[in-house]
Design goal:
Helix content is 61%, strand content 10%. The chain is α+β, with helices and mostly antiparallel strands. A hairpin with a 7-residue loop joins strand 6 and strand 7.
Length: 394
């Protein structure tokens, strides 16, 4: 039984959450309207110092129009923030034109007032702390230029702008990172649930059948015992696959796999009267999981030799490893195969070559190729680049 991931499945990608961005956008929209109202109150309080009313009225209408239009955007953009910064800076510089000079020197509130903090919040919503600090710097420079002789109140307001940009930006970054981790946790949970579902199907079907063959084979004796041993081995492999836990290692067996395995030593077990194994001097150290997969691919290739190469066919396994990577060549002197045979086998549902051999190597970051000359025999070459071995040959 082979369970494969659908060809159309794609890894989940994280995008900034519309929920977070829309919540921040709603807060910013409300802030703009409250800030306009407060700015109007301040203008009313200082009305006796106003020398030109029409610029204030025009500016108020522009700021109000922007406050209505900006929330219609799906989320803040660099262009929108630039426009809002321009409106805020124009309002700041307008202060010197609409109020009496002595009041400007005394540090009267600017025309936009706290409304100029809106683009700072928008920058923080767009790019986190960096966006908030950049927007706060633009407003701060405009305030310093407008004040001519900045006082304590000017620097106090500038500090508040920076604190606003930093704190809102930090909150946005933390919220997005939290959602990213939540989405990753949900994806892991979905994969575990899918594995459990597949595991139940395998348990209810294949594993039960293998367990029955194991029990009946032992009762039959003779060749039945060999069949029982094979069924037990396959049952254990399937249970390990669906649980990702080796049952033997779980109960503390002395034969629990080490972190690193010598592939050369593992391949020596494949020697037989019809299989010759040629190994390099010294160890070929690989992570245990990688070594097991390569060994399983070699065994699958030898199984194909036994089943399809013909009676009396011999096979040779040649292992080579150096700084560039690993190569295992499985060659036989059998009857060979037609060039289109691998494609036909996959279409017939026979996945020994495409899944058990090539699929394993692809999962490891390697490759598997076949060559069958007209003279007969088949050569299977398994390759694994050094950067995917995570081990070294010595």
């Amino acid at each position: 039984m082979t369970v494969e991931r659908g060809a159309g499945s794609m890894p989940r990608r994280y995008n900034p959450s519309p929920l977070i961005d829309s919540a921040g956008g709603r807060g910013l929209a409300l802030y703009r309207f409250l800030a306009i109202f407060y700015a109007a109150v301040l203008v009313g309080v200082h009305r006796e110092h106003v020398i030109h009313w029409w610029p204030i009225i025009v500016y108020g209408l522009v700021a109000l129009a922007w406050s209505v239009a900006a929330p219609l955007l799906p989320r803040p953009t660099a262009t929108a923030i630039g426009v809002e910064l321009l409106i805020a800076c124009v309002g700041i510089f307008l202060t010197s034109e609409v109020y009496a000079p002595e009041q400007v020197t005394a540090g009267i509130s600017t025309v936009p007032g706290v409304w100029s903090a809106g683009p700072v919040m928008a920058g923080a919503l767009l790019s986190g702390i960096r966006g908030g600090v950049i927007a706060a710097t633009v407003i701060a420079v405009a305030n310093v230029i407008q004040a001519e002789e900045p006082g304590q109140l000017t620097y106090h307001n500038i500090m508040l702008l920076y604190l606003l940009g930093i704190l809102v930006g930090l909150a946005v970054q933390l919220a997005r990172e939290s959602q990213k981790r939540l989405e990753e946790a949900l994806a892991v949970s979905e994969r575990l649930a899918e594995r459990e579902r597949i595991g139940r199907q395998v348990h209810d079907g294949v594993l039960q059948a293998l367990a029955l063959i194991h029990r009946r084979g032992r009762d039959l004796g003779g060749e039945g015992e060999a069949l029982a041993a094979l069924a037990a081995e396959q049952e254990r492999s399937l249970r390990t696959l669906i649980s990702r836990v080796d049952p033997v290692a779980r109960v503390g067996s002395a034969e629990a796999p080490a972190e690193v395995t010598d592939l050369a030593h593992a391949l020596t077990a494949l020697r037989s009267a019809r299989v010759e194994v040629v190994l390099p001097p010294g160890r070929v150290s690989l992570p245990t999981a990688t070594a097991r997969e390569v060994e399983a691919a070699v065994r699958a290739a030898l199984d194909n030799v036994e089943q399809h190469a013909g009676d009396g066919a011999r096979a040779w396994v040649l292992l080579d490893a150096d700084d560039t990577g690993l190569e295992v060549v499985i060659r036989d002197d059998g009857s060979g195969m037609a060039p289109e045979r691998l494609v036909e086998a996959a279409e017939e549902g026979r996945l020994g070559a495409s899944s058990s051999i090539r699929g394993r190597m692809l999962d490891l970051g390697g490759e598997a190729t076949w060559r069958s000359p007209a003279a007969g025999g088949t050569t299977v070459t398994l390759t694994l680049p050094a950067d995917h071995m995570a081990g070294s040959s010595s």
